């Protein structure tokens, strides 16, 4: 079994030589659809993740990534921002060389250390994509993926993160991400990532839009309510925090590979 602190030795070259995750994978930059989530639940009925919320955005993003991995069987996969989540260590660690990159400083130290001891199939790299790293070889990964992570990247860092993902990927490598965004600003904020990925050299189609009713080509988009609570200095007479706003989030699915020469 591979341990969390396993040092990269460059093994499994025969499996890597036969891996071509780009084959048969269709590029997309489009909102997740309700009928997609239903279909994924039908396909993977025993998989329930993300706070046990069957129809949440994280559940959808996790199923998208898992389904892609099971179908295309990348030899080496890197997950961005897994934190304390052990799902992919448990689900794919035995079928591919699974790596995780994250900054331990974002998490409660004891909890993060406890999660680390439970990982049996993970090569851990400390840091963040977009920063100078030791231990994550360029051109090494067939897949880089994340679930509900990219929306946390500061706008000023989006281009450097996109460039670094491109650098870390093997020639036929791909990225698969779920990008959760407030419905009201989704198209505008998604366009930042589209521009950055295009600039880095990814072969990616124009983002698919949706209308005010939440309809996109192919069906209705997934929406998840978000209750935003703000504690004003002047609270209610009972001392309760006031609910400042309520809105919905949706998610964009990004599936793209490097542009092929010739």
Number of beta strands = 11
The CATH superfamily is known as Vaccinia Virus protein VP39
Helix content: 25-40%
Query: What is Rg?
Result: 19 Å
Note the main attributes of this structure.
about 260 residues, alpha/beta, Rossmann fold, nine-stranded mixed beta sheet, two-stranded antiparallel ribbon, disordered N terminus
Structure description:
With 262 residues, this protein is of the alpha/beta class. The chain has a single domain (24-257), classed as Vaccinia Virus protein VP39 (Rossmann fold). It is 28% helix and 27% strand. It is built from seven helices and eleven strands. The protein has helices at 13-18, 34-43, 57-72, 87-91, 109-118, 158-168, 186-200, and strands at 28-31, 76-80, 97-102, 123-126, 141-147, 169-182, 202-203, 215-216, 219-220, 224-230, 242-258. The strands form two sheets. Strands 1, 2, 3, 4, 5, 6, 7, 10 and 11 form a nine-stranded mixed beta sheet that branches. β8 (215-216) and β9 (219-220) form a beta hairpin. α6 crosses α7. The longest helix is centred in the N-terminal third of the chain and has 16 residues, at 57-72. The protein starts with 12 loop residues before the first helix and ends with a strand. Mean pLDDT is 84; it is low at 1-18 and 230-234.
């Amino acid at each position: 079994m591979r341990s969390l602190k396993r040092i990269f030795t460059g093994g499994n070259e025969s499996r890597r030589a036969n891996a071509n995750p780009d084959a048969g994978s269709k590029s997309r930059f489009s909102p997740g659809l309700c009928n997609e989530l239903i279909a994924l639940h039908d396909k993977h009925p025993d998989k329930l993740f993300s706070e046990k919320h069957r129809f949440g955005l994280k559940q959808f993003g996790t199923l998208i990534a898992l389904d892609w991995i099971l179908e295309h069987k990348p030899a080496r996969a890197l997950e961005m921002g897994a934190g304390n989540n052990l799902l992919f260590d448990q689900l794919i660690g035995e079928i591919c060389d699974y790596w995780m990159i994250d900054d331990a400083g974002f998490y409660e130290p004891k909890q993060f250390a406890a999660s680390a001891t439970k990982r049996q199939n993970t090569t851990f790299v400390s840091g963040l994509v977009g920063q100078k790293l030791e231990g994550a070889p360029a051109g090494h990964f067939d897949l880089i993926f994340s679930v509900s992570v990219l929306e946390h990247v500061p706008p000023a860092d989006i281009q450097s993160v996109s460039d670094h993902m491109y650098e870390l990927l093997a020639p036929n490598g791909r990225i698969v991400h779920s990008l959760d965004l407030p419905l009201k600003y989704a198209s505008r904020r998604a366009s930042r990532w589209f521009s950055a990925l295009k600039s880095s050299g990814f072969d990616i189609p124009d983002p698919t839009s949706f209308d005010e009713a939440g309809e996109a080509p192919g069906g209705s988009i997934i929406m998840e309510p978000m209750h935003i609570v703000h504690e004003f200095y002047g609270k209610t007479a009972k001392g309760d925090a006031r609910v400042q706003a309520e809105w919905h989030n949706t998610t964009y699915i990004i599936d793209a590979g490097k542009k092929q020469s010739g």
